Amino acid sequence: MNIQRLKWLSALMALTIASTGIAKESPAAVTQSIEPATIALGEASRLTIAASGADTSEITPPMVNGLEFVAVGQSQRVESVNGVTTSTTSVTYQVIPREAGVYTIPGAASGTPPVVLTVNPGSGGSGPSRGFATAQTPQVAPGVTPAGRADMNADGSAFVRLHLAKHELYVGETIPVDIEVGMRNGFVASLNGLPTLNGDEFTLNKLSSEPQKTEDVIDGKPFTVLTWHSALAAVKPGTLSLTVETPLTVRMRTRPDAGPFGEAGLDAFFNDPMFQNFFGASTEKEITVASKPANFTVLALPTRDQPADFSGAVGHFSVSSDLSDGKAAVGDPVTLRMRISGTGNFDRVSSPMLHDVARWKTYAPTANFEPSDSMGFRGVKTFEQPVIAMQPGAQSLPPVTFSWFDPSTRQYAQARTSPLPVDISPAPEERSVAHQLRPQANPSALTPSGSAPADAAASGLRADHVIKGRGAASMTPYYYQPKYLGVPSALLLALSGVWFWQRRREQAAADAIAEGNRPSLDPQPLINVMDDARTAGDSDLFFKSARAALQRDLASKWQLSPEAITLEEVSERLGAKSDVARLFTLADETAYAGTRLTTLDYQQWRQLVMGHINAKGMS
Amino acid sequence: MKRTAAGLFFSIAVVGSAALGVSRAETVEQPPIPSIYSAAALYDVGNFYARMGRPALAVLNYERARVFAPTDTDIQANLRHVRESVGAPARTGGWLSQHDRLANPNTMYWIGLFGLALAGTSLLLLRRWTSSHRAVLRTGAVIGVAFMALALGDAFATASTLHESVVMFATPASASPVSAADTLFTVPFADVVSVRDEHGGFDLIIDSQGREGWVASRDLQPVIPRSEAVRGFRQVIHRPAT
What we know:
The complex is a heterodimer. Chain A is α+β, with helices and mostly antiparallel strands. In chain A, a hairpin with a 4-residue loop joins strand 28 and strand 29 (411-416). Chain A starts with a helix and ends in a 5-residue tail after the last helix. The relative contact order of chain A is 0.07. Chain B folds into three domains: 9-88, Serine Threonine Protein Phosphatase 5, Tetratricopeptide repeat; 105-159; 165-237, SH3 Domains (SH3 type barrels), CATH 2.30.30.40. Chain B has eight helices and seven strands, in the order H-H-H-H-H-H-H-E-E-E-E-E-E-E-H. In chain B, strand 4 and strand 5 (202-206) form a beta hairpin. Chain B is elongated and about 75 Å long. In chain B, 45% of the residues are buried. Chains A and B meet through helix 5 and helix 6 of A and helix 1, helix 2, helix 3, helix 4 and helix 6 of B.
């Protein structure tokens, strides 16, 4: 290291010392807390003693008969606000009771209030009471896996720890777990993802993206510790091992360990990553840090004495129920509520509520869970079921049961609510809504979220309707659904098709009639007449029929009507001296003057006519 | 409809309860959507919300029930009751707009289809049949055409519902479809508005008092949930003026 850098370092150290001297220390104060405050015998609690403005030596473990205190962790937090520096040192003890009872743990310092720890002998049973049945609710105490260098990664830059409540649990049982990721300041550049479980034997509730962040000093090294509070559950029985790992980016030294300052003393100081980073003597590398394996004994839920309505709930629960109204009319719905509170796997807490109850109509219940902690381990799950009385009179709703497995007693438990009385009045007559309408409500009393007092809009409502028959699968009317628009279109198309077909048939018939009225262009009948005239020696008829036969033949060839085939037309097209023109002329002369023909003449003229008719074309 | 035990809101609602995207889920329950739509089911859901003190959702479901049963007096009474109990403005419109629909549009659709078939068949047979049947066929054609006219009228009347929405939260209406635009007026919740245009998360609406302005689409819930077909039809009916 050159002289210039040593000057920089000296200036930096001087500045740090000066600023430390200027800063004011806040007065010392000692607080302590215990969590949870109620546990069962055999479980443990955690006592945290925090001393503000004091060092660790001022914190001494308490002494209470019947309780054992084991130091499991220590952390230090330094805050500087507006030039006022506050240093808080916290020491955590695991509190293990020897016997059941109520213990008062005295304050760690004068002026510090004592805390009380209640240790129950074990889990109690449940018993029905008037609409309220409780079961003992032992708290799950977080046992703590001691921290140490053993769960550090190889270069001591980071660690992952699991704080588990216990190591023996049942399948489906949810236990709280704290996942701590410690990152040595200056060594770890970034956290590249949330901690994840290794293996598929356990499930972990979703981790928050904003974990609890504390500063800790471990073996004299400053660490930033991120803590996620979550819940863990095993999905299969057996002896299982669990580790948690998290991806990090750490800074690696690129300079040799041995420096100009020797093996100890200042060398360790100048090899600190803070200084390595400052002078650009490190590089970044992505690593994955894993926790030490935590071993579990996961027990299968017993099949013996398993209640029929057991849905997989494991934990400690209490059950209560009530009705939305103790009075109702026939046909009016009332809501039966069952609240299940406690700790455990609330995702498996379910109840069919009531069904097939005489003189009552029941509907499917809904469920709503309100957690009271961030991990969803503790809270209240409320089931609401609309029920409708079918007959008037004093009636009662039958009890509702809920079964679960209690891991502390290792037995199934069942809570049964008491019957709930309800006074059912006869159905009121149809009332005119006009009489029910209240005076105009004050709009200013309405909340901006669009809600109003429930009774403001509810009273005076006409009763519900019976749902009959099949409804529509969509709110959109058929008119505007393409598949339904196709039906009238197809029908219209079919009708149009029939109309066109019908019209075409009619047209064809009309054409056929018209065709029947048109003069025939077939010369054959006239040829027959011509032959008959030749046989009879009627020259006049012979030439007339011969001319008519040629007229029909020429008419079809020239696309004219037979009447248009005149001597002039023939003379113009075929020549005045053509055979056809001569025949036309002869036919006229025979009609007026008469002409006697020989058999040979008849034959020649017939051949001439047939020759023209049989000819393919004639221009 | 007959009065009897009901309240079937949950049993018909749970299946599709997550489908409707109410934007402020933290302040209002997800409105139940029946898996099968019927006037009675929607009416019961409306009653449920009215009892829960959620008038906007109650009005939305009553309006939906009214699509299927436009002449049901219970729906009209409860709708009027809820609207008046929260001080929502009365809906305006002439006699024709209030009595232009007779029955469930899906029933009217089948009636129109029957009318088309009857009129078409009668007119086709009129060309062929003898005079002894012509009077019957003419009557059939007239009845068919009348049914078609009823259905077409109902279709046009129902079309107005396609662009109606219920205001779920009191929302400011501005002069242009941008967040920073000046507020013209505030549309009260539970009001039924007509949506004329859409642009970038804003709807151009005309409220029940005839005022026009742009409001955030997330504060509205369409009476008839929008589908591509309906949206296309809306654009045809209410093509923005250019």
